[in-house]
Specification:
One of its GO terms (biological process) is proteolysis involved in protein catabolic process. By secondary structure, this protein is an alpha/beta fold. It is built from 16 helices and 14 strands. Strand 1 and strand 2 form a beta hairpin.
Length: about 425
């Protein structure tokens, strides 16, 4: 039986519509006769899309106006001066990050104010340095200075789609929540992917025939995000399925910084450098003591070394800025203990001052703390933990009395576990 065609007037445009199916008259109330035809709905939808697009453009222009102020306040030398107050050494890394951030904001300004077809590509950064050398600390202080959303995601927890684990979209979702659920703020933030070396493909330069869900697949999934694409994700706690409401964030203006210890990268660099003059009568024979140190090698890293390590070429192409950090020696760790604004020793001095107690660390005691951190091979990360162990009994006993005192930490306290000296003032 053929479908019967009925006619009805649209309440908006007043046209008589031949209704063959529900899509000719999507909105219809049989009780009142109120109806809206598909043409009117299309026009209203088109008007709303134009309005939304114009609103986004206006917001971009407002942000572009604010960028002048941001750029004036955050010139590279100003950023480095600020980082110098909190981070000891790593001058090269500070310069690289200062320039990368400044250029990132200049790129945004150019994109908002010019429409000449020229697109300045993102200067995403890859940071290489041993554990505890200050990679995360550098970025957390940088984000405080810039007053923009900053989110750290552990890359080793990511897996490619279809496997148990976190999808790569989690990095953008973390930034969205760091921006207090403000999509526009999130779209101008910084994402730091920590432990990035853990997603290097296991087979290095040679591909593997076995499933590698936490490695090369994750790198492939990150490609579009690093380049700049719209990432869709569900809110926290919601499972991913076709009907789940999603949030969309454009990563075009998000600066990606990836970092890791890249354990063994110095061997890869040394192998490449030794190939030039390691064979033949003219080759120099190196003894064990003649081999270059980690700090000498790490600054000579090249993209081909990262490829050999297991980072795919496409990812390296999207991380044009290579930032290297040195190991921290005893003198550097000693300065970290006392010089920065938030130095561990200063923190404990302030805590004890609240109980009317002065705290004094003798220099040989501080050097003993630094040596212990070097032995643990965890860099500056373990300094506070070592002091915490020594200070535990003092922090427990001091509040028993309100009388003014002075606590002296000696070398014996660090190396032999002796009790700190407590002197009445």
């Amino acid at each position: 039986m053929a479908n019967q065609t009925m006619q009805h007037q649209c309440s908006f445009c007043k046209r008589i519509i031949n209704v063959r199916d529900q899509y000719d008259l999507p909105i219809y109330d049989p009780n009142t006769g109120f109806a809206i035809c598909r043409n009117c709905i299309k026009e209203v939808n088109h008007f709303l899309e134009e309005h939304d697009a114009a609103q986004v453009q206006d917001e971009k222009q407002v942000f572009a106006g604010e960028l002048d102020d941001i750029l004036n306040k955050n010139k590279p030398h100003i950023i480095k001066q600020y980082l110098d107050e909190y981070i000891i050494n790593q001058d090269r890394a500070k310069k690289i990050l200062s320039v990368a951030v400044y250029n990132h904001y200049k790129r945004m300004k150019y994109g908002y104010q010019n429409d000449d077809g020229t697109e300045i590509e993102k200067s995403n950064v890859i940071m290489l340095g041993p554990s505890g050398c200050g990679k995360t600390a550098l970025l957390s202080h940088l984000s405080k200075l810039l007053d923009i959303p900053f989110a750290v995601t552990d890359a080793s927890s990511l897996t490619e789609a279809g496997f148990v684990g976190a999808d790569v979209e989690v990095a953008v979702r973390n930034l969205y929540y760091a921006a207090d659920k403000d999509v526009e703020k999130a779209e101008h933030g910084i994402i730091y992917l920590d432990e990035f070396d853990k997603i290097a493909r296991k087979s290095g330069a040679n591909n593997s025939i076995t499933a590698d869900p936490g490695h090369e697949g994750v790198q492939q999934a990150l490609l579009k995000m690093l380049e700049g694409s719209v990432v869709e994700f569900t809110s926290r706690g919601q499972r991913k399925h076709p009907e789940a409401p999603t949030i969309k964030v454009d990563t075009k203006n998000i600066l990606f910084i990836v970092g890791g210890a890249f354990v063994g990268i110095d061997d890869v660099i040394a192998k490449r450098l030794s190939k030039t003059s390691s064979i033949g009568f003219g080759a120099e024979i190196q003894g064990k003591d003649d081999k270059p140190k980690f700090d000498e090698l790490i600054h000579k890293v090249r993209p081909e070394d990262l490829m050999q390590y297991g980072i795919i070429p496409e990812i390296i192409g999207r991380l044009p800025v290579i930032c290297t950090l040195e190991t921290l020696d005893e003198d550097a760790l000693l300065r970290i203990l006392t010089e920065p604004k938030n130095a561990p020793v200063k923190q404990y001095e302030k805590l004890l001052a609240m109980d009317n107690v002065d705290l004094e660390f003798q220099e040989d005691a501080l050097r003993a703390v630094a040596r212990k951190a070097i032995e643990r091979k965890t860099g500056a990360r373990s300094l506070k933990g070592i002091i915490e162990d020594i200070m535990l009994d003092v922090m427990f006993d001091i509040p028993k009395s309100n009388e003014p005192r002075k606590v002296i930490i000696t070398k014996a306290c660090i190396e032999e576990g002796a009790a700190p000296e407590v002197v009445k003032k």
